[in-house]
Known about the structure:
26% strand, 2 domains, four-stranded mixed sheet, five-stranded mixed sheet, UDP-n-acetylglucosamine1-carboxyvinyl-transferase, Chain, 24 strands, binds uridine-diphosphate-2(N-acetylglucosaminyl) butyric acid, single chain, alpha/beta
Amino acid sequence: MSPVEPCYVIRGGRPLRGDVTVSGSKNAALYAVAAGLLTADTLTLRNVPEIADIGELAEILRGLGSRVEIEGETVRITTPTITSTAPPAEQVMRLRASFLVMGPLLARAGEAECVPPGGDVIGSRPLDVHFVGFRMLGASVTRNGANWRAEAARLRGARIFFDYPSVLGTVNVLFAAVLAEGHTTIVNAAPEPEVAMAARLLNAMGARITGEGTPTVEVEGVLSLHGADFPIVPDRLEAGTYLLAGAATGGDVRVTNAVPDHMDSLIAKLREMGMTVEANPEVGIRAIANGPLQAIQVQAVPYPGFATDLHPQMAAAMTQAQGISLVHERVYDNRTLYVNELRKLGARMITAGDTVIIEGPTPLIGSAVRALDIRAGAAVVVAGLAAEGETTVLGIGHLDRGYAGLQERLSALGADIERR
Ligand code: EPU
């Protein structure tokens, strides 16, 4: 451990109880910030989480000609003209969502150049869907040294089929299609709530999109977009993380602003584990442990299936369930880096291919562990909260990228967690 490396110190073993309100969705907010490149007017975004990734994307936009003001949870973006179509490689490599500048730059300036983006090392993360979409809209996509380059004098609507319902791919192609000439149909689009929100935001800016949140999205191109004032949807992954922390500690946690319709798969699985779950728009989601959790099986698949971004946290909760639990990961090929970290806390779990097998209940014992990506980091926090004694979580820069006010929110639920 480097002497200056910040860490969380958790003294676990206490049931989490109480209410928590989550921030706006990290991923949806990133799509919304990128949408600011599509208009010369001011786009005002509310309920934006105060996390490092938003600052990183804002910095990229500033280099492309945007004025970006961040005041707490409000972000204002104004892009009178695009002054550069090639963001610097070192900035693009800091986060995956940086690649979302491609669609807007292509649509508004006729060209865009970007290195392959960075992001969590959770598997091979191809970009083919983005390129298939751009090409179908009439752009040429070529490699220029380290960069991907897309260009088109004028984009034209098309019927586009995606091999895979890529989340960022759908958003990027939507960004390009809204300003294309004529009609676009995207078949096998990602139906995630954050993608649907991005479409609603674009409509608030004057786009004409229908079918958002379904696998077939229709777009009638318009000549230009205008500003809007728009709130970001609550973060279902942050909400799920707190509910799973409640489950792992035998607690009773309510996420007051969780949207139950976005979280059917988690609600079903918590009930299968033996928890009582109340879920409606008035209460949000409350999950109450009634004695020991039961072992269950989960497959992480695209929405509305169980979210891959809740897989590691679910596995951490499963260490406290009676029997043999399984998580089968079907989105990423390298999602299970967290397993070795949880084993350091005493978890009895192994990986067999894309499946993690967990034997429980296991009394976890505090130890030093590392957050290896955002969700692996959330998993070690959940396990640390369930563990007896002191857990030190290193690598918390990953958690800062995705979880606003993590320590404050967990403390309010009765956790003993301190940032050092
Ligand atoms: N894929 C393809 N072809 C493509 C693109 C993707 O086969 O052209 C496959 C990938 O190999 C991968 C799967 O699709 O196995 C998921 O990739 P996708 O493109 O859907 O993911 P993404 O758009 O890069 C977003 C989120 C991730 C989240 C995934 C899946 C952002 C910034 N990132 O990534 O979020 O895991 O969708 O839901 O929105 C996180 O928040 O911790 C995170 C990693």
